[in-house]
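Please review this pair:
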Amino acid sequence: MTGSAVRAFRRLSWLPVAVFAGTWAYIGRYEGWGAWAAGPLLLIPIGLSAAMAVVGLGFCYGAVKRGGVDLGTALATLLAALPTIWFAVRVILTR
């Protein structure tokens, strides 16, 4: 079960970035108050990214606990976490 779940995670790790890019492009079509009103749509890819990052960290922890480091899963976790990392950096820098 774990092996197939890790493979599925690796194959789907690009999904948060793609959803974020699509949402960003959608919001970019609006100006002013329209963009501001559509802004909460970014919570969907950021939430998906955070959830997948937590799952990926669980897979990485399991691999380390078994005595190995799975670089592919670690990179997939980093890729899935990119929208959440972007959001966190943006919040920190704008304060």
